[in-house]
Amino acid sequence: MGHRVSTVFGAAQPFDPTHRYTTSWILPPLLLAIIRLILSIYAFTTTFFVLGWHGVHQRHDLDRQYFSYFTNLTYWGIGFYFLFSSMHTFKYALTGASWLQKWPVTLQIAHTVFYTTIVTFPILVTAVFWAVLYSNAGFQDEFDGWSNTSQHALNTVFAAFEILLTRTPPPPPAHLPILVFLLALYLALAYLTYATEGFYPYSFLDPEKGSGKLAGYILGILAAACVIFGIVWLVIWTRRWLTETKLRMHGKFAKIRSVSDVEIVEFGRQHAK
What we know:
disordered C terminus; mainly alpha; single chain
């Protein structure tokens, strides 16, 4: 893949030479890795507990419909993102280099896109749930309250952790069309679900309630996703400016220096002469 293409998609070569995806401006790498692993465990525990609860309480229909909901798909994404990011961070903390830096360029781009989805889609899920789907009558029981809080509130807390406490760069603009494409794929899945299962995952997707209203919801969610992307970009840019430029907190790095780090430094010195 061409250097220009990889740069546009946030994977300039050599990839992540200052370890932005595996370090924090305030947390040591090992602690960052542990927290990421804990968040992954919590996400997967929540997911499997919800599925198990449905099975025990004879709600097998909800289990069959599980992957038709955007909320559940993004929550699986959260679990896998924090799992993989914790593995890369543990590797960096212990050796001074992450597996991510040695991956093929296509996988490096995929990781940067994955990161962008994790800091945007959970916020979109939270906004749509509390603004559109939540009933003022409240939750049915403690389980309903806990599961919805975990999937529609803590998901944004997890995203905020990555946005505010790591050293990641702002998502490149080239990721925005990918987010729009993923939303379009989900829309197709929602209507495929209706065609095969006979129900809409979200009631506002029913065209019988008015085509104008349906278009308004779709365009509104699309616009919200774009606005969230822009806000996230600005917050990350501000975090970098504040912590690195103003506070001179350039990051907590591994005590072990990898061979690749030394090579990058020597390369820079040679070209600076």
